[in-house]
Amino acid sequence: MKLLAIDDNQDNLLTLSALLKAFLPQAQLITSQSAQDGIRRAGMEAPDTILLDIQMPGMDGFEATRRLKASPATQHIPVILVTAHRSDSACRVMGLECGADAFLSKPFDEAELVAQIKAMVRIKKSEDALRRERDSLEALVQRRTAQLSQANVELKENLERLAQNEARYSRAVRGTSDGLWDWDLVSNDYYYSPRWKELLGFADDELENRPESFFSRLHPDDLAVVQDSLCSHFLGQTPFDLELRLRTRGEEYLRVRCRGQAEWDGAGEPVRMSGVITDMTERQLMEEQLRQAQKMEAVGQLAGGVAHDFNNVLTVIAGYANILKMDLTSESVHYGLVDQIAAAAERAAQLTRGLLAFSRKQAMNPQRCDLSEIVRHVEQFLGRVIGEDIQLKTEILPEPLPVQVDLAQIEQVLVNLAANARDAMPGGGVFTIATGMCDGSGLGHSGRSGRHAVIIVSDSGEGMDDETSRRIFEPFFTTKGVGKGTGLGMAIVYGIVQQHKGNIAVSSNPGQGTVFTIEIPLVEGGAALQPVLAPQTSPQTGTETILVAEDDPNVRSLVDMVLSRHGYQVILAEDGEEVVHRFAAEQEGIELVLMDIIMPRKNGIEAYAEIKKIQPDAKVLFTSGYTADFIQSRGMKEGVELIMKPVQPMELLRKVREVLER
């Protein structure tokens, strides 16, 4: 045991040391001659008992006891106060109040000294043991609390994950277009998801979860097939995957695909089977849409294949016809004939553009303008399209509807719809065009989000049945007699709307008229809207030198004539290689290069790149009769000047002047 004696009298410490050696030899004595030093030694040595003299200078034994008992490091060490007044009860009371554990009187009684020390050591050891036990229990409680807390956190996380999985499964069940089913083969219990019942026209609580709900609704001709397929599947021979018919609430038969997978026990006996039914109406619709897309793609390929040559021919026909018109007076007997030639060429050009439009291969000239203003502009000449016996009404939204569209193509959409409405109202009626706005894609065909401008075109005509409405946009589909329609008008409308990243839908019933709804994405912010009716001025003549590159000799001669007649100096080239050589030889005098994109030896894009190396600020105007996708595949970039064939002479002259004056 370790003892600490604190006494300012050295003789008392020597006496105590001698007594302990004689009567308690196993004790180790540490001494200190002041209260401050004794408190310090107690904290350092951690003795089993402290013998503390009361009467000491500076700090007496009472104050030292208070400080020892107040410190966490020494408060558990027993303190024996040593007093010279055995019978001084007031001194003992004060000592007890300070925290003393026992008292000894001087001079020491050897037996009492040893007994007191041993008692204090026993008390301290017991308290230390209790304290260790308490600390051990507290540590154990803390560990168990931490473990329980962690287990509680994990339990909450597991419950949360379980809830999320249940919610995810529930959403999947609610959101899927398939109906789910589960069959316990042991108990013969059935489960049908709400969607399973909904496909047959029932609410969840209107059809019982029993095997009979399925088997009694099978088409009689399908029952044996289902039973044979189930038996074969239970034997593990074939998958269960059938197309069959189920009777709906309306006593009609719905064609569905039924798939399932069984579970077997250890003995190889089937104990459970789960699966889905899928409404085959959606697949049939998708297959029909695929056939429609393939048909339109085939027509598009046909149109694209002949577009270049056909447009070159039309450019020549329309060009020379317009030149003849300029040379003739309106009183000439030939003026009307030439006018008919020009009009026929324009109709052929429109047909070509229409073919390319519905196959989405037509090059676009998009402008940012107000859709309502386009409708107002078209309204001015729609009366001539629909005839006097049909009343034209417009309901235009007062605020602007900014869209990025090709004006000519949108006008063609409205004209085609007006012509379709006219044919549906042989006895007269009302034709209405309205504009509006919607948030998101209300028609839901393309899934495009954002605000859309809306055009609603309706008539009070004969209407259409479901079959006609479904096929209305097919190319070459028509209900008109032979020679009264090409079957391309509505297909062109569909293609133009799709090319503008829009949607179109039709709603019609026999005898109740027809409504077409068109959505086109709105353009937020940006530059100011361009006017629909741009002022048309006569093309100015010029004296500049223009290098023309065109591989078709007829088109080349026409362009040479048109430009030369209006004062321009023309240099001709037959292909891309020649245009580069001509430009390199006479670059200082050439103010504009007018060239076709697709030419032999070197195409226009390649020639353009070499011309730019020779003269970076050279002005170039491209022409082409090819489809937009074909041009882009040859490296055509956005922002270059391009005019599409067939092009009227006046249009060509205006575009040439526009590029020259930039």
From TrEMBL:
The modification 4-aspartylphosphate is found at D53, D596. Residues 305-524 form the Histidine kinase domain. It catalyses: ATP + protein L-histidine = ADP + protein N-phospho-L-histidine. SMART domains: HATPase_c, HisKA, PAC, PAS, REC. Residues 123-172 form a coiled coil. Residues 165-230 form the PAS domain. Its EC number is 2.7.13.3. InterPro entries: CheY-like_superfamily (IPR011006), HATPase_C_sf (IPR036890), HATPase_dom (IPR003594), His_kinase_dom (IPR005467), HisK_dim/P_dom (IPR003661), HisK_dim/P_sf (IPR036097), PAC (IPR001610), PAS (IPR000014). This is histidine kinase.
